[in-house]
Design a protein that fits this description.
Number of helices: 9
Order of helices and strands: EHEHEHEHEHEHHEHEH
Distance between the termini: 24 Å
Oligomer: single chain
Strand content: 15-25%
Largest sheet: 8 strands, parallel, barrel
Helix content: 40-55%
Length: 284
């Protein structure tokens, strides 16, 4: 398994410094939050996109994905949602990123009929852009989040699409909050899995981000489920510092976080994974 972190944990940081953090602490990839607050977003010019792509190409760090905010199950016209997804796909293609993250976003308090309608809407929209995404070499990943936070719920949507250009991003916090056991989520997402977001929190009531291993999420059980299946994809630490001002700064946690995941993988027999060995290290 290879390890990345999301720029949600270092919001606003310039790309050279993001790359510096990754190389210093042995991370092989970065998930780029695509938002106007960040150095990377769909409004970048062609020259700016080329500059970002070149900065990563000149390093040992990969762009894992572009984390967008399109809500594919939200009510309303398809057009604006499809345009937003296409913009994210074009950005990912220009940066050499293999994945684009989207949300369900159907809303809360839906009954069975409304839920089914939202899933049909999401599957229709994803189906429209799936072939275009595949042509760009980018895969759209629906994150286990908000209205469809369980693996079972997210899998219902992507199963309707049934296209290799569409998969699921497994956010372990949301499937845990949904009450799914790790093995249950893995079974639902196994045919669709793009990559996995790891994180840790104090409790279901207090989701302020903590360093990996400092909270209650059963990270070892998630890695065990993945390792047992021989999965060797990306683990991305999404530390939600942007939403929690009082959370500790991420840079000081990156090294211990990588070491914690390595120890957990040692326990699964996968501790020799290339992504958890130091990359091109330099003094912090």
């Amino acid at each position: 398994m290879r390890l990345a972190f999301s720029t949600l944990g270092v919001s606003g940081l310039a790309i050279p410094e993001v790359i510096g953090l990754a190389t210093t602490h042995g991370y092989h990839g970065v998930e780029l939050r695509a938002h106007i607050e960040e150095s990377v977003h769909p409004g970048l010019t062609a020259a700016e996109r080329s500059g970002v792509a070149s900065a990563f190409a000149d390093s040992d760090v990969e762009v894992l994905g572009v984390a967008g905010y399109a809500r594919v199950a939200a009510p309303g016209d398809d057009g604006p949602v499809l345009d937003e997804v296409r913009e994210l796909l074009a950005l990912a293609s220009d940066l050499g990123a293999p994945y684009v993250r989207v949300f369900p976003g159907a809303g809360s308090g839906l009954g069975p009929a409304e839920t089914a309608e939202s899933e049909t809407t999401a599957a229709r929209r994803l189906g429209v852009v799936a072939e275009w995404a595949a042509g760009l070499g980018v895969r759209i990943l629906l994150e286990t989040h908000d209205s469809h936070r369980s693996g079972a719920a997210s899998a219902r949507i992507v199963s309707q699409v049934d296209h290799p250009g569409v998969g699921v991003l497994w956010d372990v916090l949301h499937t845990w909050l949904a009450g799914e056991e790790p093995a249950m989520t893995h079974a639902a997402l196994r045919p669709h899995l793009g990559y996995v977001q790891v994180k840790d929190v104090a409790s279901a009531e207090d989701t302020t981000p903590l360093g990996l291993g400092a909270g209650v999420l059963p990270l070892g059980a998630y890695l065990e489920a993945l390792s047992r299946d021989g999965w060797d994809g990306w683990l991305c630490w999404e530390y939600e510092k942007r939403w929690y001002e009082g959370a500790a700064p991420l840079p000081g946690l990156l090294g211990p976080g990588r070491e914690h995941l390595a120890r957990l993988l040692d326990g699964t027999g996968r501790g020799d994974c290339a992504g958890l060995r130091p990359a091109r290290l330099r003094p912090a």
